[in-house]
Amino acid sequence: MGTNPGSDTPVTDYLESTGAVELLCEIEPNGSQFTHLAQNAPISRATVSTRLQEGEELGVFEQYEIDGRGTSHAYRLTETGATIRLYLDHLGLTERYHILNDLQDEFDSRVGEFQGWLEENEDDIHLSTADDTNYQNLNRYTLQVERDE
User: Is the full-model pTM beyond 0.85?
Assistant: First the structure.
C-alpha cells in the first residue's frame, strides 16, 4: 500500500502490528467508540489506544465528535481504511474475525460452566488409578484419536 502522507511508516508495517487488522474488522461503518473497540477487540485497552493513534497518523482511521454527547468521540475509517476493509471483507476475513470472536465468547462461557460443575463434583472425580473405568476410557479415546490423525 505504500507510505501514507504525514507518516514514515508504511501501512503494510502497521497492518502487521498486533491488533491492527482486528480494529479494521471491528470498526462499524458509521464509526465506533473506544469503549466498544476495547470491549470487543481481542487486545488490551492500551494496544487499542496505540493502534488507533498509529492508524490516525497513517490516515487509516479518523476521530470525530459525537453530536449531543459533549466531548465524546468515535473512530471511523478513512478512504484508505475503507479500501483496506473492503478487501478484508472480500477475502472473508472480517466475517471470520467475528465468527472467531463469537466462538471465543462461547468457549469462555462453557469453560465457566465447566468450572462450576467441577466445583460441585470435585470430590467425586477419581482418575488416579489405572483400573478406573473413566481413566481407561480416556486412554482408549486418546489412542483412537492418535490413530485417526
Answer: no
33 found inside a domain: yes
Answer yes or no: is 144 within a domain: yes
The whole-angstrom separation of Cα 120 and Cα 124 is 9
CA distance 35 to 95: 21
Judged on CB neighbours under 10 Å (0-12, 13-18, 19+), 1 is middle
137, 70: one domain = no
Q: Is the dihedral of CA 42, 45, 48, 54 positive or negative?
A: negative
Based on the fold, state whether residues 87 and 126 are members of the same structural domain: no
Tell me whether residue 127 is exposed, middle or buried, using C-beta atoms within 10 angstroms of its C-beta: 0 to 12, 13 to 18, 19 or more: exposed
Higher per-residue confidence, 31 vs 69? 31
> Given this model, what pLDDT does residue 1 score?
45
